[in-house]
Amino acid sequence: MPKPPPDDAKLQSLRQQGTDNPRPGAVTDDLFADSQFLDPRDLVQVKYEMLRRVQKEGHSITEAATRFGFSRPSFYQAQAAFQAGGLARLVPRKRGPKRAHKLTAEVLEFIRETRQQDPSLRTADLVSRVKERLNLAVHPRTLERGWARSQKNHGRRDDLGSSER
To answer: In whole angstroms, what is the distance from residue 152 CA to residue 55 CA?
Structure first.
């Protein structure tokens, strides 16, 4: 299979979806070498074919993991994910926090009350007051984003102001 250009449309699409294989060169299985359909850059496809080789063709886990560019623990993770939810579970999940978990309703209410008392407070001042009152360290940008999101959700638009110190 000829190597596609690094910035082709399919690769861009895989990257946008978060399903591009970071190590396509590690895929050495013959299925991918001789196919116009199978693409070693498609992580979901690679994982599925690795699982299929073991399940349907009886390849050893060690052999399949190696030929598809994975470790044995990665094979078992993919297998468990597939068994739990099918093909969709082979799509990598985004890492990291999914929301501003420090900015609870209590923290946002404290910010609202503090801003009502003194609207001239800057983000850095609010961060200090949250630390003093609630014993919670919050990054200024986290506070700005969380406040903006809470205002947007309540149909208001009220910026915190500059985060200059």
So the answer is: 50
Rounded CA separation 34/36 (Å): 7
The pLDDT tens digits along the chain (165 residues) read 455 555 589 899 999 888 999 999 999 999 998 888 999 999 999 999 999 999 999 999 999 999 999 999 999 999 999 999 999 999 888 777 766 778 888 999 999 999 999 999 999 999 999 999 999 999 999 899 888 888 887 666 566 655 444
52 exposed, middle or buried (CB, 10 Å; 0-12, 13-18, 19+)? middle
Place of tokens 């078992």: 76
| pTM for this model (two decimals) | 0.58
Q: What does the alpha-carbon distance between residue 38 and residue 51 come to, in Å, rounded to a whole number?
A: 14
Q: What are phi and psi of 63, to 5 degrees?
A: -65, -45
